[in-house]
Amino acid sequence: MLSAGTGTETSARSGPLSAVPGTAAFATAVEQALAGYFATRAEAVTELGPIFIDAVGALESFVLRGGKRTRPGFAWMGWLGAGGDPAGPRAAAVLRACAALELVQACALIHDDIIDCSRTRRRFPTVHVDFEQRHHHQGWTGDSAHYGESVAILLGDLALAWADDMVHGSGLDPAALARFAPVWAGMRTEVLGGQLLDVHGEASGDESVAAALRINRYKTAAYTVERPLHLGAALADADADLVAAYRTYGTDIGIAFQLRDDLL
Q1: Which residue intervals of the chain are DSSP H helices?
Q2: DSSP code of residue 12
Q3: Which residues contact 18 (CB under 8 A, 6 or more apart)?
Q4: What is the per-residue pLDDT for 176?
Q5: Which long-range contacts does 157-164 make (Cβ < 8 Å, 24+ apart)?
Q6: For residue 106, which of 146, 55, 157, 151 has the smallest C-alpha distance?
Q7: Alpha-carbon radius of gyration of the chain
């Protein structure tokens, strides 16, 4: 469960942010927030030894390498559209909470690549293939592919856990975090449920339009556009009418985004 931020992660903090989504400055700000968060984990990671340090380094590289920062961008825009002040005292904490969406995305991508048997992601080996190759090159015992998948599953789980921790330590005030938490919880359930619907649909051969739209709604639209906008609105304490408008718009745009991605 998310609880009130403690404000202890000072190395991840930055000053007021004036950049808007769609600019290189915003993407850079998100990446700086993520790098700052990983820096706060260094001491705990080091205690577990070089194997864990190396694995977390691979996760950090995966998170920071490429990506459009779409989900943090929609969350930030949701906050701005509901009255958030990008130059105000809450902006840095809001940015860090929005940036945590990239860790949820990392979990989804790492696990999705295993499920889909994908070998590359953004022109690099997928995480499970990376560790499969490491196992093979070291000549370790056991099956290299199984080792790679095992490590990747754990790193995906770690990314999801750390997404919660990043929000928890973002510096959000207790009231904002209390509004944020149920939306965050709903989003995580939806994306995992959508992935399960996708796996089942492929196995069962269900090619109906209704099934495809349901999968696209929950696997992609909900956590790419709809819920990020909702999260931003919650942080700004938006009224119910604006939240409803955001969610309707986010669902439609999110499904369109996935349909276009499917065609590509």
Answers
A1: 24-40, 42-47, 50-64, 70-81, 91-99, 101-115, 127-138, 144-168, 174-204, 209-215, 227-235, 240-263
A2: G
A3: 86, 87
A4: 98
A5: 157/107, 158/56, 158/59, 159/59, 159/63, 159/103, 159/104, 159/106, 159/107, 159/110, 160/103, 160/104, 160/107, 160/188, 162/37, 162/41, 162/103, 163/100, 163/101, 163/103, 163/104, 163/107, 164/2, 164/100
A6: 157
A7: 19
- List, for residues 92-137, the tens digit of each pLDDT value: 999 999 999 999 999 999 999 999 999 999 899 999 999 999 999 9
Over residues 164-181, the mean pLDDT reads: 98
Are the C-beta atoms of residues 84 and 90 closer than 8 Å to each other? yes
In tens, the pLDDT along 203-221 reads 999 999 999 999 999 999 9
* Strand duo 124-125 + 120-121: pairing: antiparallel
Neighbours of 240 (CB within 10 A): 8
Contact 129, 101 (CB under 8 A): no
**Separation between Cα atoms, residue 223 and residue 101, nearest integer Å:** 9
Q: What amino acid occupies position 234? A: A
Contact present, 181 and 2 (Cβ < 8 Å): yes
Q: What percent of the chain has pLDDT over 70?
A: 92
How far is 215 from 220, CA to CA, in rounded Å? Answer: 8
Separation CA 225–CA 227 (nearest Å): 6
Of 9, 187, 159, nearest in space to 92 by CA: 9
CB 158 within 8 A of CB 59: yes
- The tally of CA atoms less than 13 A away on the side-chain side of residue 174 is 2
